[in-house]
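I am still getting used to C-alpha cells and would like to learn alongside you. Would you supply a protein for us yourself, any chain you care to pick? Start from the sequence, derive the C-alpha cells from it, and show both lines together. Go ahead whenever you are ready, and we will take it from there.
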Amino acid sequence: MGPSPRKGKVQTVTGLVSPSELGQTLVHEHLSMSFDVAYVPPSSENAGKSSMPFSMENLGWIRYNPYSHQSNLKLNDKECETAIASELAMYRAAGGGTIVECTTHGIERKANFLRELSESTGVKVITGTGYYVAASHRHEMYEEPIEHLITLMHDEIVDGCKEAPQVRCGIIGELGCSWPLHGFERKVISAAAQVQEKVKCPVSIHPGRNPESPGQVLRIFQESGGNAGKLSLCHLDRTLHTNLEELFEFAKMGSYLEFDLFGIECSHYQLNEKIDMLSDAQRVDTILQLINEGYEDKIIISHDIHTKHRLTKFGGHGYSHILENIVPKMISRGISAETVHKILVTNPSEWLTFQ
C-alpha cells in the first residue's frame, strides 16, 4: 500500500489542499449548529425573556444571559445561515483564508451547508468528526462499543461524512468533555487517539470547565496512543486563565494552546458561575506571557462563535473581529508582526497538516 493521499496536505470540505494555501486561519468556529444542550432556564421573574425576539431593547439582557435565550442557541435557522454566508464574505475581504468548523455529532453538523458556504465565499472550511459532550447525546449512545466510535471517526475522514459522503473531515473534534469527565467522553477520547494513530490527523478537544480538565484529558489521550503535538486543547481562556504558573505547567505537555473566545467581553459566565471570563485585553496579555515563556510555536486563536448574538447581524463582533481589532491590539502590546503571522498562519497550518 502506498502513502496516504492526505500526507502533507490539509483536508477541506472541498478537497485536499497544500498547507501554504490556508492563509490566516480561525481554528475554532461554528457556522451551523444547535446549542440546546447549554440552555440555562432564566429565573422565574425573567421566564418570558427566554423567547423574546432580538431587538436593541433586549440585546443587553441576551448578551449577559446568552444561554437563557432559546433562539440565541439556534445557529442553524435560515436567517442565521444567510447572515453567516454574508459574514464569511466579510471575513474573506478582511484577509481571512480558512475557518475550522468544530461542530460534531450531538450539536447538528451540516456538512453539505459547509461545502456550499466554502464554494460561495472562497473561504476554505475544515470540518470535524467526533462527538460533543455526553449530555448532547441519547443515553443509548453511552453504551456504544468503542469500535463503533473508532469506525465512524475513521470513515468520516477517509470516506466522507455520514450525512454527506462527498465531504471529508479534516480534523477530529471538537470532542466535548465535561467535569467530572463522563465515561462516554473518556471512551471518545481513547477512540480519537486510536484513529489519530492510524490516519495521522489533527485533533481538537473541548475540556471540562475546571482547571484540572485540560491536563486530565491530555493524559488520557496520550495513554491511548495519541500524539500531543497534533492536539489542540480548546478554551484555555476560560479554563486555565487565573494562574499563569498552572498554564505554563500545562504548556509543557506539548499540545497546541488554543485561546478561542475572542470577542466575549462579558465576565459573567452562565455555564460556570465560578469562572470570570477574561476580556480581550487580558487574553492578549496572557498570550504575551506565553510568548515570553517560549511557547509562540504552540499558540492558536479564534472566536468560537456558537450563538447568534455574536454575529454582526444580531449585534455582535462577527468572524472578522480578530483580524480587524485584535491583531492591531497584539502589535500595540509588543507582539511582533512575525509572531502574529505565526499565530494566525504558521501554527494553524502545521497543526492541520496530516502527517
Summary: The longest strand covers residues 24-29.
